[in-house]
Amino acid sequence: MGGIRLSNESNKTIAALGEFGLINTLFAPLQGSGDDNLKVGQGDDAAVLQIPRTQQLTVTTDMLMEGVHFSSDADPFLLGQKTVRVNLSDMAAMGANPHWCLLSLALPASTKLSWAEEFARGVKEALALYDVSLIGGDTTASKGCIAINMQMMGLLGQDRAQLRSAAQPGDRVFVSGTIGDSALGLAQRLGQLKIASADDRAYLMRRHQLPEPRVPLGLALQDSAVINACIDVSDGLAADLKHICQASGVSARIDLERVPLSEAARNAVNASADLESLLITGGEDYELLFTVATGAVELLARITADLDISITEIGEILPQGEESRVEVVKHGEPFTLGKSGWTHF
Amino acid sequence: MGGIRLSNESNKTIAALGEFGLINTLFAPLQGSGDDNLKVGQGDDAAVLQIPRTQQLTVTTDMLMEGVHFSSDADPFLLGQKTVRVNLSDMAAMGANPHWCLLSLALPASTKLSWAEEFARGVKEALALYDVSLIGGDTTASKGCIAINMQMMGLLGQDRAQLRSAAQPGDRVFVSGTIGDSALGLAQRLGQLKIASADDRAYLMRRHQLPEPRVPLGLALQDSAVINACIDVSDGLAADLKHICQASGVSARIDLERVPLSEAARNAVNASADLESLLITGGEDYELLFTVATGAVELLARITADLDISITEIGEILPQGEESRVEVVKHGEPFTLGKSGWTHF
């Protein structure tokens, strides 16, 4: 079943294959082999899994709509990758080990077969990163836009979920990697921003199109039980910290100048200071944002020292006060955000 | 949280509530309470489930697209119901007990709030039928059509799945309920068919809009381990029997005059004999189609006698021959179908 490239006839549409042809040729090969826990896979009315008795099941879902989450001319290979990676990021936030997924895909009949092939190739590459198996789904026609939905399932030890609701006043706030790259990549793509350096442009676009789910970090944090609350940054650093605050009944303060930036993002802010708000409101960073009791910070440093990802302390958790809020401070002075998080409607 | 009706302001759109408002007011209440197996529910990056150690997990997904699976003016209450019921039907086919679901919903910002309220009310009513809990999902904007995806999970004893692949030559072929009502209801809705009787019109429309998932039958069959192969009829009786044949490496013959029809469908066929093909190719019946060894037919009759659903023997499983095929016979003569199954592209 090795390759999934079917055709060099670039004008052929998916209608030539039909639903079952698409599934059999493009998606059946994405079900891995040798999984003793998979009792029934693709091709029946439902998949059947045996969950190991020491483990809990984690399950998440993400929908990606053409014109909202991606443009009509988006690279289907990268889109396939991103579909998987945003779900992997949710698994990382819970500290779970991803294993299985289902994919629903609605495509106009006029969709080029080459588009579907490239999309499936992107899904395949991203699934291979973390040995995740596609065990079912639904492929159907669309009379309008392309709609993609993926559900992902993973395993987690008993009582080991890293929740949004576990932040405590006094906790230190940490974030992985760098923040704002994806927002800058998107702004550039939409023509709202000109980045002078070609290297910086390429770096920011890659961060937008190909987010790196922090699965190894999530597993290491969960394994050591060193942190309190955790979330992945999808709506924007400020908005997602607010989600932690609301779920935990606390507030938070972050220092803008401590928010870790890539060299490319630093260059962009140096060229145009009014981008600072965008960095922490733009979203789609897919980094982990988490809180740690002060006494555990040293242990955290030891645990994460060997991982291939930096973590940075950016603020602290405060008592809730009248309502949960996130205070952003720059050099000790209150900083007003341009907009607050990704708005879906 | 009892009611989920928010507003009589029928012109208000969902944009007034926003994503989190929609989730909190419409969908959060659909997570049941008192479920000891649900460790983390809605509101975190992923849900967490404890699967009982004697049970396996079954998981399925279905996507419904505006313009393909439902029309723009479809009743949102019935659409919410159907979204749940088609997934319940997959659980029934596996013999699984449905427990949890996730819902992804992409809506244009101009969608009326009353539409979303009615849709959520329909989902709620159908979930309540089988005590299924909504434990997560994704709500997002759409720039085009409405897209709906539901993933459902259930529990099943070890080695108890009712597979498509277990049919044996000599098996008798059975189907539950009546066949073709949904196809006639749809044809009437699309103006392709005029049904004289108002009662018949209403009955057929209801069968199309509000399919009855055969969960109790599926559980009874699984519990007694009396059947071989099983599938739910979504693509059409002939097409789904062919799915069984292909998965099992067999062929089949059915007698058209034995296919169980409702009084309304019988009246329609009596008025227009050329509808006969449509009955077994139209799809969306959501009845169970299953095969039983000859020696087990008597036991089957005893097991199903107390259920509130009829089952009818319509044919038999044959050796495969050169390739898997479904032969349709009417009064002993070969019958040629008008079209074969629901085509998605």
Automatic annotation (TrEMBL), chains A, B:
Mg(2+) 3 binds at D45, D90, D232. Mg(2+) 5 binds at D235. GO terms for molecular function: ATP binding; magnesium ion binding; thiamine-phosphate kinase activity. Residues 43-155 form the PurM-like N-terminal domain. Pathway: Cofactor biosynthesis; thiamine diphosphate biosynthesis; thiamine diphosphate from thiamine phosphate: step 1/1. This is Thiamine-monophosphate kinase. The gene is thiL. Residues 168-323 form the PurM-like C-terminal domain. Mg(2+) 1 binds at T61, D62, D138. Mg(2+) 2 binds at D62, D90. SUPFAM superfamilies: PurM C-terminal domain-like (SSF56042), PurM N-terminal domain-like (SSF55326). Mg(2+) 4 binds at D45, T60, D90. It comes from Magnetofaba australis IT-1. ATP binds at G137, D138, R164, S234. Pfam families: AIRS, AIRS_C. Belongs to the thiamine-monophosphate kinase family. Its EC number is 2.7.4.16. GO terms for biological process: thiamine biosynthetic process; thiamine diphosphate biosynthetic process. InterPro entries: PurM-like_C_dom, PurM-like_C_sf, PurM-like_N, PurM-like_N_sf, ThiL-like.
